[in-house]
């Protein structure tokens, strides 16, 4: 494993991560040297490397990275590529992977936890590719194009559907809706990123997986409550969703107890404060 931290940021032009998006990345919340949801992040990175067909770093090698963090709250970004070599798209065999990492100071946005956010529907549709579904791979051009659709800071996120108009995710977060007494999130077997907070919430029984036929936009817009979440920002309740033209409100929700309960479960995993009312 060839490693390079933020003090040595040079990336070779021959690196396949740069040339082809041939690699993976993780963004990890680190507080005073302690990484949150670290087991989930390591598992996703190692699983992703096996899926792409090259050797991942050892768990021991990865465990040493958060120890380098400064005090305070930071985001650790880890980028793992197949390295250089091969001929054109043909990968080298064996590969000599490279891993880059960097710590960036981070401040969460508690006003979004408390007051909720407005979102919009995106024009862009995600293509379905089961071989890459769930992975946080480096080729994120679809997400870049979707995020390019708006410049209004009052819109926190964009909701992305697949080419069958089924719910998948937001540009940088997973999503969920409350219906029939439980929280649902789309299955991600054809496209989308399986977030680490999403995985933990499913494992703890807070979220259920909705099949493709149940992940329709109408179910989302007609749900009692909706939200967005990831392992860095925590959980943002959605209070308003605009259409793709940003001219009409397609959905509107109150922040009720169901949202606060899910938020409490999510924030407990990240060490963020609860917003549940105290009696």
TrEMBL record:
Keywords: Folate biosynthesis, Lyase, Pyridoxal phosphate
Cleaved signal peptide residues: none
Key word Amino-acid biosynthesis present: no
Organism: Kushneria konosiri
Transmembrane segments: none
Protein name, entry field: Aminodeoxychorismate lyase
Cofactor: pyridoxal 5'-phosphate
Gene Ontology biological process terms in this record: 4-aminobenzoate biosynthetic process; folic acid biosynthetic process
Its EC number(s): 4.1.3.38
Family under the similarity heading: Belongs to the class-IV pyridoxal-phosphate-dependent aminotransferase family.
Reactions mediated catalytically: 4-amino-4-deoxychorismate = 4-aminobenzoate + pyruvate + H(+)
Associated pathway: Cofactor biosynthesis; tetrahydrofolate biosynthesis; 4-aminobenzoate from chorismate: step 2/2
Quaternary structure, from the entry: Homodimer.
Molecular function GO labels: 4-amino-4-deoxychorismate lyase activity; pyridoxal phosphate binding
